[in-house]
Amino acid sequence: MNATGTVLVIGATGTTGSRTAAQLIAAGRRVRAASRRATRLPGADAVRFDWYDPDTHGAALAGAGGVYLVPPVGDPDPAAVMLPFLHRARAAGVQRAVLLSSSAIPEGGPGVGAVHQALPGLFEQWAVLRPSWFMQNFTGAHVHARSIREDGVILTATGTGRVGFVDADDIAAVAVRALTDDRAPDTDLVLTGPEALGYDDIAAVVTEVTGRPVVHRQLTYEQMRDRLAAQMPLEFAAMLAGMDRAIAEGAEDRTTDAVQRLTGRPAHSFRAVAERELKDPWPAPGTSPAR
């Protein structure tokens, strides 16, 4: 890919897509911001894109040399819609693809693992970003963040397991390098923050930063699955609860230096992100934040 070519950012209004688009624009790159509502972003060309509507794919791909791929949310089999699109992208001249996956899903694994497996055979240059759990799960619109704001509690089935939580800004910074460096990484990259933390540790940091008591309440796998199933399909809820159980068993208790290797600077700590993103006064427990 020519480093000055247009980059298609799929999911450009999401947690990592919005940050990747913004950082690409700040670096002077041409960005096509793709979302279901074609939301306009300053400095980017907006285009409507829906994974499940192939009629939206052609305009998104026209003239793109690289693409940042955020899989469809909540789909247990994203390869069914992503692989046809990726074949079309290759035929349209896309040379570099960077896929957002997960530290919990290896190449060839379930869900997006099948897309990971196919990527090297489809594009001349590629990378798969496998971030750990996002720090923004506790500061944004995620169920954990809402539970913290409204009830002062974090509910998980992770026990005392630890996670190398990662800042979404750091994920985006790695994505930008993978998309624009002279040569793509051509590998998968497990992305973490600088330390592995338990959910008790997260609750303690949020308490200290906000001045409001927050606790971690441990659930069983079954309790977590059923709680999530009230908000999403049972199959996806079971998968997410299973990831909590894997954390309890130590699957995510690790850190890597991938952020520093790719960006040239250390990964942000959770305390730094909490201090950056939890500045506004919070409502009292049991009340909803102002909208």
From TrEMBL:
Domain of life: Bacteria
Domain NmrA-like: 128-252
Family annotation (InterPro entries): Ergot_Alk_Oxidoreductase (IPR051604), NAD(P)-bd_dom (IPR016040), NAD(P)-bd_dom_sf (IPR036291), NmrA-like (IPR008030)
NAD(P)-binding domain sequence ranges: 11-108
One Pfam match: NmrA
Protein name: NAD(P)-dependent oxidoreductase
Species: Streptomyces yokosukanensis
